[in-house]
Amino acid sequence: MKIALIGYGKMGKAIEKLALEKGHQIAAIVDSKNPIESINFDGVDVAIEFTRPELAVKHMNFCLEIGLPIVVGTTAWQNDLTKITENVFQCNGALLHASNFSIGVNLFFEMNKKLAEIMEAHPSYKLEMTEIHHTQKLDKPSGTAVTLAEGIMEHNNNYKNWRLAEKNEPENENEFFIHALREENVPGTHIINYSSPIDSIQMQHIAHSRDGFALGAILAAEWIKNKKGIFTMKDVLQN
User: Fold this and answer.
1) Are residues 33 and 75 located together in one domain of the fold?
2) Which residues contact 222 (CB under 8 A, 6 or more apart)?
3) Are both 62 and 135 inside the same structural domain?
4) What is the domain count for the chain?
């Protein structure tokens, strides 16, 4: 499979390394010196995009308009999801987006929903979430944390909202804090904590490297080839 990398930072390089090991070819690279408009995508099978939120929508629309399937790992652009979805169908294109491509994290998403469902009957346990990432990560909280929060609210009616814990403000009983910490050389840690005066119940996922994210993005690229529509990592894991 011939892959175009849109974004050639640490994630792009991790994807390149694993893709080559799996026998794929990196046919094009888009970065700050080589904008997307300057690239020849002839013969490319799929693009994998890890850049910045302000660039991601442009890259998605470009690929859709030239008929190139695209896998998107950039987060914090989802306010434009409705427009992007419309463009996918207008162009009869293919787009797969996820807040996290790691197989382990996607398993963690499902475990989080189940725990949220169980804890609904035990409101004495108060919820907090913590996410820890490297200092170069731009969005706060992480897209993964937002997905976890949405899963909790979907399965536990005690919570209607989440709030970034930037200030020590009073907390409404129907919302919970997300603590977003930035530390050197942390690929990604997410901690779900339900705490009562008696004890605490904690669940966490710790990424040891970027390889899990990179491998998941490659699996998504392999999966979306020759498909049409808009998909998430859940579609990949269910097939």
Assistant:
1) yes
2) 1
3) no
4) 2
Neighbours of 19 (CB within 10 A): 22
pLDDT in tens, the chain (239 residues): 999 999 999 999 999 999 999 999 999 999 999 999 999 999 999 999 999 999 999 999 999 999 999 999 998 899 999 999 999 999 999 999 999 999 999 999 999 999 999 999 999 999 999 999 999 887 899 999 999 999 999 999 999 999 998 766 656 889 999 999 999 999 999 999 999 999 999 999 999 998 999 999 999 999 999 999 999 999 998 87
| CATH of residue 197 | 3.30.360.10
Cα(first)–Cα(last) distance of the chain, in Å?
Answer: 19
- Residue listed under structure tokens 């919820």: 127
Token pair 């200092």 is found at: 135
Let me know whether 186 and 225 are in one domain: no
What are the C-alpha distances in Å from 133 to residues 3, 29, 163, 201, 207? 27, 26, 18, 22, 10
Residues facing 190 on adjacent strands: 131, 205
Domain of 59 in residue numbering reads as 2-97+211-237
pTM of the model: 0.84
Catalytic residues: 133, 137
